[in-house]
């Protein structure tokens, strides 16, 4: 039989401590001490943890901002070197004083400037004199300084808007001697506007970029624009203002140290935006962009971290008070531990559920993104099919009239051939020769019609655009509709200069004109007077032309006028239109850089006018064509 051992008796010192713990005065002192310790410890731990989390998050965002800035600045890095091998610029360098060479180079630079999305491209001599440019300009003040220092890029402020411009330089050489420089300028205002928008939506984080003179050239806070990071004495301010690198007066000092910790950051106080009194505590971190000579500084607001630290401190004090109470009430220890264990388990479960929810949402977003890409691809394919379907629909509507146009010459050819056989048998070669000439004219007419049909029906390359004779496109479109216009006795008045060439693609431009002419003919079908007017009017100093197509039909009402360019909307009877002609025409004109508009004729006139504008390539003659 085993006798259980009796529990050990507590020592006398332990008994005294337990009795001391049971006294109310000592318990109050212990509770106050635990509250103070909990307050200080929780405040420090929470503030340190908050600073570490904020620093890690700010470091990630700082790298993202730096990558975004580097990508934006490097997007056009290869453009100057590609332009350097262009034959037009090579010809300009061989004859820099040749005015035609300068104009040719300027036109080429203007086209490249529009396609590349830059703001200016120009070629200058080693002394800074502009030889050719995408638009009229004067060389920036810093260009001569940058050329003297052998730089390949530099920043300068736009004197008109105050925004920051980035210049890319590429030297040009002839016979191993400096012959000039290609300069590409693009503005950083869109990127800075994105930062400003983020700063307005998230007041807790601000970003700024300083140049090699420690002057802020980009910032999400406009009040800090062109301010000095560290302290600047009056002499330095005068020197910065005299450098002509900044368009306005140098702003106030921000009192940021010259070097900041990249990982943990450094706490600073900066003046509040908008001229408010006082300064706001912030965590400053910087990222050096050495190739560009820039400092990217991220400033994170510490207000929320400190508030959380205060809340945690009070929580720590409450926890200390709880410990003091738990010392008095030892009987409730097991229950408190059980509650703590349950809370931790619930927290782990909530954390697991949160991770599962994040994974699920990530998978859904990925699927949504894939579906969106598929829809975009299908939409592009559908647009191309609708474009070709519109052409085939127009050809289908013209098929009956065209078959009649071709059938008449074929019948005449058969009769003339048989007549020629009899004339040969009767020995009349002169009459046979006349019949053959008539047959040749008929074959030539059918050849023109079928050739234009094949050209209109083929799929056009949307990427090809060049100088197109507008009058030829108008005549080709009228040729395709000749069977309808001749049947209705249509009077066509063409006011288009013969030497006018516009920037477009011939096949797609003819499709737009066929759609507009066909709609005009349909509108005038039941009218006593049928007159079609096509007019080209110069705009913008001759750089663009406004093409108008007018008819004298009944027109459309005000309600239908607002819906003309909606897909599948048509005022024609069922079976006579898909409602896609004007939609596709508007899309084609938009791709040419213009806008298709519709309006009713004023001044008491009946009819509609459809207008669109195109860029002019050449306008060599002013005489007008008669049709």
Care to describe what's here?
This protein has 627 residues and is α+β, with helices and mostly antiparallel strands. The strands form three sheets. Strands 11, 12, 13, 14, 15, 16 and 17 form a seven-stranded mixed sheet that branches. A five-stranded antiparallel sheet has the order 2-1-5-4-3, with helices on both faces. A five-stranded antiparallel sheet has the order 7-6-10-9-8. Residues 622-627 have low confidence and may be disordered. The longest helix has 93 residues, at 333-425. The chain is elongated. Helix content is 51%, strand content 19%. It has three domains: 16-329, Beta-Lactamase (2-Layer Sandwich), CATH 3.30.450.20; 352-459, no CATH class; 464-619, Heat Shock Protein 90. The protein has 16 helices and 17 strands. It has helices at residues 12-21, 24-74, 79-84, 87-94, 99-116, 142-149, 189-201, 234-242, 303-328, 333-425, 429-457, 470-480, 482-488, 506-523, 558-561, 581-591; strands spanning 120-124, 130-133, 153-157, 164-174, 177-187, 205-210, 216-219, 266-271, 279-289, 294-301, 466-469, 491-495, 500-504, 531-539, 544-550, 596-600, 608-619.
């Amino acid at each position: 039989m085993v006798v259980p051992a009796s529990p050990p008796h507590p020592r006398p010192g332990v008994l005294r401590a337990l009795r001391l713990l049971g006294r109310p005065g000592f318990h109050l002192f212990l509770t106050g001490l635990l509250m103070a310790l909990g307050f200080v410890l929780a405040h420090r731990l929470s503030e340190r943890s908050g600073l570490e989390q904020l620093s890690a998050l700010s470091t990630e965002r700082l790298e993202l901002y730096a990558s975004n800035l580097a990508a934006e600045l490097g997007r056009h890095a290869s453009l100057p070197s590609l332009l350097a091998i262009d034959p037009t610029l090579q010809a300009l360098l061989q004859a820099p004083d040749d005015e035609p060479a300068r104009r040719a180079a300027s036109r080429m630079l203007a086209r490249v400037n529009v396609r590349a999305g830059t703001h200016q491209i120009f070629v200058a001599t080693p002394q800074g004199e502009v030889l050719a440019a995408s638009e009229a300009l004067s060389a920036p003040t810093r260009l001569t300084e940058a050329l003297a220092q052998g730089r390949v890029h530099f920043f300068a402020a736009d004197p008109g808007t105050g925004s920051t411009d980035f210049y890319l330089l590429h030297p040009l050489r002839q016979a191993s001697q400096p012959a000039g420089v290609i300069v590409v300028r693009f503005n950083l205002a869109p990127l800075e506007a994105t930062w400003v928008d983020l700063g307005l939506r998230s007041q807790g984080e601000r970003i700024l970029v300083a140049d090699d003179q420690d002057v802020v050239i980009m910032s999400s806070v406009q009040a800090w624009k062109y301010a000095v990071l560290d302290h600047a004495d009056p002499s330095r301010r005068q020197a910065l203002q005299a450098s002509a690198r900044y368009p306005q007066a140098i702003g106030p000092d921000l009192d940021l140290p010259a070097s900041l910790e990249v990982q943990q950051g450094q706490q600073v106080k900066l003046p509040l935006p908008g001229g408010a009194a006082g300064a706001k505590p912030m965590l400053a971190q910087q990222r050096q962009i050495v190739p560009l000579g820039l400092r990217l500084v991220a400033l994170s607001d510490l207000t929320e971290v400190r508030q959380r630290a205060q809340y945690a401190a009070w929580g720590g004090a409450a926890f200390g008070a709880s410990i003091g109470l738990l010392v008095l009430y030892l009987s409730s220890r097991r229950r408190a531990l059980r509650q703590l264990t349950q809370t931790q388990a619930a927290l782990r479960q909530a954390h697991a559920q949160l991770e599962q929810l994040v994974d699920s949402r990530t998978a859904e977003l990925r699927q949504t993104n894939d579906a969106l890409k598929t829809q975009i691809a299908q939409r592009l394919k559908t647009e191309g099919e609708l474009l070709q379907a519109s052409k085939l629909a127009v050809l289908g509507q013209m098929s009956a009239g065209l078959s009649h146009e071709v059938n008449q010459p074929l019948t005449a050819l058969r009769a003339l051939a048989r007549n020629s056989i009899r004339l040969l048998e009767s020995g009349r070669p002169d009459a046979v020769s006349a019949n053959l000439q008539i047959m040749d004219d008929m074959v030539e007419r059918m050849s023109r019609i079928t050739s234009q049909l094949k050209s209109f029906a083929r799929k056009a390359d949307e990427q090809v655009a060049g100088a197109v004779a507008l009058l030829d496109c108008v005549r080709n479109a009228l040729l395709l509709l000749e069977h309808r216009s001749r049947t209705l006795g249509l009077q066509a008045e063409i006011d288009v200069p013969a030497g006018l060439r516009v920037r477009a693609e011939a096949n797609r431009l003819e499709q737009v004109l066929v759609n507009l002419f066909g709609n005009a003919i349909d509108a005038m079908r039941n009218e006593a007077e049928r007159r079609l007017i096509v007019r080209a009017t110069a705009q913008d100093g001759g750089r663009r032309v406004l093409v108008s197509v007018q008819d004298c039909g009944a027109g459309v009402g005000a309600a239908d006028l607002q819906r003309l360019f909606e897909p599948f909307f048509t005022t024609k009877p069922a079976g006579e239109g898909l409602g896609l002609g004007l939609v596709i025409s508007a899309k084609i004109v938009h791709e040419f850089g213009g806008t298709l508009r519709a309006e009713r004729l004023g001044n008491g006139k009946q009819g509609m006018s459809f207008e669109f504008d195109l860029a002019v390539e050449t306008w060599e003659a002013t005489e007008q064509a008669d049709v």
